UniProtKB/TrEMBL annotation:
Annotated GH3 middle domain residues: 245-317
Organism: Amphilophus citrinellus
Protein's name in the database: GH3 domain containing
Top-level taxon in the UniProt lineage: Eukaryota
Record domain GH3 C-terminal: where: 336-452
Length: 464
């Protein structure tokens, strides 16, 4: 199942060929690049990997239906490399599994790597840590597991057999948490070398927040450009700030549609040797598991070539554009404008955001001019003034001449900026996963909401 960020979730075939290519062309290549860039990662330290056991259902023919990514079951031969014991993955509740991830990671001061598919999962983990650290420290001190977790008696017994009272480690942790959460990762785990997670595209915001706050001073490596459709590219330049990916021609056959031709019914396509550096294209893929000339909706920029193969930077997804009058504001453009505006709001720190076009909410919000509804979750701010809200609209006008012209003409009304309650996006994430049968391992936050009930849910969480 795809993550459904461009609308409804789609069902695609996954075969052994696809998974083998991902390992041979992706995992092994990136492990080599990682060891060359960060030689400390070759040490025998454990990794804390934040991933979860997904729920699979079956087709009428008995074919399993679920997410296409590494799971605890598919990684059973590697679980001994991780801080979380195998028994923890028998727990189906995501919140309880995350608590166990954190508990066993905190017990081990020598953790070397934090890993997950996406930076968002690492960010959610640190948010939970900030909320529940006292409970976790008490468990380490007592050598028990909190009774707040709904664990089967046998699972609890097996997990508690791995615990023993450790008041010394608990005292260390308590001192670190009472100090501050800025740079907390490096204090909890002094030998932490790397955060291994994709932090480009819709995960860029989470990578930035982690680097500025919880994981300050820890290097990040964004290894793959991949989708449910399969492996698309690998990052051979781990230390480069701009995430660049070398396309993998043996994993997927790629064609390219010029950005100027995206709206044509039968656009002309280019092959790898025909693309030009500096140009933007939509990817069209043919893979080993049956997808034929399939438009995945990703727009990439060709930034160079490795030998004769294109190197690309992800730009935006077609299905995640704001477009009420043909202005086509991409996720990247909106996020840049949002960050500039938030920087002008004293004490404000962006936690998460999404937008909705006014049309999906109908008459419930009043006003006839089409406009953007913007939902923000912030730290350090309890209310927004009208002047602060206006700064976001001005910021986008400064970055987008087309949006500005529509605003001046009055064809697009002023942006409506809503500050939502703490935790609203975490609740929204759970609703989205339940609706689309998406696993926490593959979930991506929708930056443009296409379902009315999601927008109405956030309107109901508005505090300012």
């Amino acid at each position: 199942m795809t993550s459904g960020t461009s609308g409804s979730s789609a069902m695609l075939l996954s075969t052994k060929n696809t998974n083998t290519e991902f390992f041979l062309q992706g995992v092994t290549v990136c492990l080599d690049a990682m060891r060359q860039a960060f030689p400390e990662t070759s040490s025998l330290q454990r990794t804390t990997k934040f991933f979860y056991t997904p729920t699979f259902r079956q087709s009428e023919a008995g074919i399993p239906i679920g997410p296409n990514s590494s799971t605890p079951a598919s990684s059973h031969h590697m679980l001994n490399l991780y801080t979380t014991p195998a028994t923890a993955f028998e727990v189906s509740n995501e919140k309880d599994t995350l608590y166990l991830h954190l508990l066993f990671a905190l017990k081990d001061p020598s953790v070397g790597t934090l890993e997950s598919n996406f930076a968002s999962t690492v960010f959610y983990a640190f948010s939970a840590l900030q909320e529940r650290w006292q409970e976790l420290v008490e468990d380490i001190e007592r050598g028990k597991i909190s009774t707040a977790l709904s664990l089967e008696p046998k699972v609890r017994a097996r997990l508690e057999a791995l615990m023993k009272p450790d008041p010394q480690r608990a005292a260390q942790l308590r001192a670190h948490f009472q100090d501050s959460f800025r740079g907390i990762a490096k204090r909890l785990w002094p030998h932490l070398h790397l955060v291994l997670a994709v932090d480009s595209g819709s995960n860029q915001i989470y990578g930035e927040m982690l680097r500025e706050n919880y994981c300050k001073g820890v290097p990040f490596y964004s290894p793959f450009y991949a989708a449910t459709e399969g492996l698309i590219g690998v990052n051979l330049w781990p230390q480069a700030l701009n995430r660049r990916y070398l396309l993998c021609p043996r994993s997927m056959f790629c064609e390219f549609i010029s950005e100027s031709s995206l709206d044509e019914e039968t656009p002309h396509t280019l092959l790898m040797e025909e693309v030009k550096e500096g140009e933007n294209y939509e990817l069209l893929v043919t893979n080993a598991s049956g997808l034929f000339r399939y438009r995945i909706g990703d727009i990439v920029k060709v930034v160079g070539f490795h030998n004769q193969c294109p190197i690309v930077e992800f730009q935006y997804r077609r299905g995640q554009m704001l477009n009420v009058r043909g202005e086509k504001v991409s996720e990247a453009l909106f996020l840049d404008a949002l960050k500039k505006a938030v920087a002008q709001w004293p004490g404000a720190q962006l936690v998460d955001y999404c937008c909705a076009e006014s049309g999906i909410l109908g008459d419930s919000i009043g006003g006839s001019d089409p406009h953007y509804q913007v939902f923000l979750e912030l730290k350090g701010v309890r209310r927004l003034t009208e002047e602060q809200r206006h700064k976001l609209d001005i910021s986008l006008q400064q970055d987008s001449a087309v949006y500005k012209s529509f605003r001046i003409k009055g064809s697009i009304g002023p942006m409506r900026v809503q500050l939502v309650a703490d935790g609203a996006f975490n609740e929204l994430r759970k609703r989205m996963m339940a609706y689309s049968s998406t696993s926490p391992n593959t979930f991506k936050m929708h930056r443009v909401l296409r379902r009315k009930e999601y927008a109405e849910f956030l309107l109901g969480k508005t505090v300012s």
